[in-house]
Structures are given as C-alpha cells and as structure tokens.
Design goal:
Helix content is 39%, strand content 21%. The chain is an alpha/beta fold and 312 residues long. Among the domains are: 7-108, GMP Synthetase, Chain A, domain 3; 111-207, 2-Layer Sandwich (Ribosomal protein S3 C-terminal domain), CATH 3.30.1140.32. The chain starts with 6 loop residues before the first helix and ends with a helix.
Length: 312
C-alpha cells in the first residue's frame, strides 16, 4: 500500500524496450554505466531548450556508440548546416574516448509525450504563470491530440505559499495497474525564486493488443521417399479419355417393349369371366346351419299360399 512504481520501468520487457542496449563484462559494467549517465546529463544540459524527450544509447562490438536523440525541435539540435551536431559529436568523442554516431528522431506529436508536457508546465511556472492555468491548458491540448487519459501532479511551494502542498488534476482514465496500457510518464523541476516545484505527468494513449505468438517450426526427420507405382493401362485410358456428360446422356438404358392395347369390344367377356370366377368363391364357404333353415322354409311355403287359393 502506498508504494509507487515507475510506469516506464514497470512495463520494461512487456512492450517497452530499454533505452540503453549494450552488453558488457562484469569488470566493465560499472564504467560503461556511468559513461551512459554522464552522456545523458551532458546532452540534456546543452540542448535544454530543444525539447528532448529521451536519449537512447547502443554500443557495438567495435567500440562504437550510437546515440539516438528524440526531440520535438530537430532544427535546434542540428543547427545551421549541421554545425551543432558535429560539435556535439566531437565533444563526446574527446570526453569518453569512443567513436560516437548521433542520429536524430523527430517527435511529430509533442502533446502526447509526457516528458515534453511536464517540461512545458515547469517552464510556465518559472515564468510566474499560474500552475492551475498551465495544468488545465496542458490537459486540454493532450486530450485533443487523441489521448484517452492524462494526469498531472504539481508539488512544492505553489504560488509562493509558506507551506508546501500538492495539487493534481486528471481527465479520462489512467489505468496504472494494467500492463498492456501504453502509459507514458515524465517529470520535470521548475526552479523558482521561492523554491523548487516538481511536475509529474502520466499520459494514457491506448491499450496494446498482444501479438499472437508464433511457435518455432518443429524439425521433423525426413522420411524415405518411395517410388510411385506405375499406372495401370485401364486407369491410364480412363484418365486420358474421360466420359463427357453428353455421351452419358446419349446412351440411355433399353426400355421394356410396349404391350398391345386391347379393343373395347373385349371388355364384356372380361367382365363375365370376373363374375363367373366370383360365384364359385361364394359357394365354397361351408355352412352347417343352412340345411335346417332351408327345410323349415320349404315346409312353411305351402301354408302361406293356401289362403290365396281359397279366395280364388
């Protein structure tokens, strides 16, 4: 709780590279480290008004040092006809005894660089401009440039007060605990007649999407290549002369022979044969109780007819 971490150092190795790229033996490490620190102090002191954001150093195996200066005002660093750069390179070579190569990178949007924003606020405070006005204007310009969030902090004897205090202002969001968040941090010091006033600036640009990791290809053992089998003659002929759809349609399967139609006059005997065939089917069913019923009907028939004869 309460421990502050440098945002740039917190993201080293995640997506932010180091500002010093070189390798040294354990015996020479201390010497080379102090050379880098002294070189940065010399460059920042000489080019204080050039808007320098950061200085990158790189050492090669042949004792040559490459210094990359990121600045918002490359014209001041280069000078007329490159005279300032040549003079700076000669001074560095005499002081450190190594060959120095200087390259200059222009910062196209200084409003999105936290170091330049902090230095701008510090210079305004030194000119006795209200710190609140300087902070508000810096936040407005940064948000208009496309930032998603900005936070500015000032601490010291603000407005010449007897007791030092801290003031800060923020707009947007600044997720300091998100490692993928591209947050730039810078700080500067305003040296006034009533003391030193510190300025810190955090600028949240955007969230970086991690690139998809590509695994190295697995080395497979080469398999022996077998000779392909010789093509068979039937398969070769079928491949050489494929059957077209027109030829397939031209040879349909043989149809069954059509039966001759019968005349309409032959319909009557056909019906008679059907009725004749249906009669024996009805008589074929045996009925045991049909005989006594028939006898009873035979005996009852003359009794019904007798009264009709008497009337006649």
């Amino acid at each position: 709780m309460g421990h502050k971490v440098h945002p740039n150092a917190f993201r080293l190795g995640v997506f932010r590279p180091w500002e010093a790229n070189w390798f040294a033996n354990p015996k020479d490490y201390t010497k080379m480290l102090h050379e880098d620190l002294e070189m940065r102090r010399v460059i920042m002191a000489r080019l204080r008004n050039a808007g320098i954001a950061k200085v990158e150093t790189e050492r090669s195996s042949n004792a040559q040092m490459t210094v990359t200066i990121h600045t918002a005002k490359p014209g001041i660093v280069i000078g007329k006809g490159g005279s300032s750069v040549d003079q700076l390179r000669e001074d560095l070579e005499k002081r450190f005894g190594n060959r120095v190569r200087i390259s200059i990178q222009e910062i196209k949007q200084p409003e999105l660089d936290a170091q330049l924003v902090a230095e701008n606020i510090a210079s305004q405070i030194e000119r006795r401009i209200s710190y609140k006005r300087a902070m508000k204007q810096a936040i407005l310009r940064t948000m208009r440039s496309g930032a998603k969030g900005v936070r500015i902090y000032c601490g010291g004897r603000l407005r010449g007060a007897e007791m030092a205090r801290r003031e800060w202002d923020r707009e947007g969001r600044v997720p300091l605990h998100t490692l993928r968040a591209d947050i730039d941090f810078g700080r500067a010091t305003a040296k006034t007649t009533f003391g030193a006033i510190g300025v810190k600036c955090w600028i949240y640009k955007d969230q970086i999407t991690p690139a998809q990791r590509k695994l190295p290809p697995i080395a497979e053992e080469p398999l022996p290549i077998a000779e392909p089998p010789a093509p068979q003659p039937d398969i070769a002929q079928a491949v050489a002369a494929p059957a077209t759809p027109a030829e397939v349609e031209a040879t349909p399967a043989p149809a069954a022979p059509a039966r001759p139609r019968k005349p309409r006059a032959a319909a009557a005997p056909a019906a008679e044969t059907k009725t004749a065939a249906a009669k024996p089917k009805a008589a074929a069913k045996p009925r045991t109780a049909a005989a006594p019923k028939a006898k009873a009907e035979g005996t009852k028939a003359p009794a019904k007819k007798a009264p009709k004869k008497a009337d006649a």
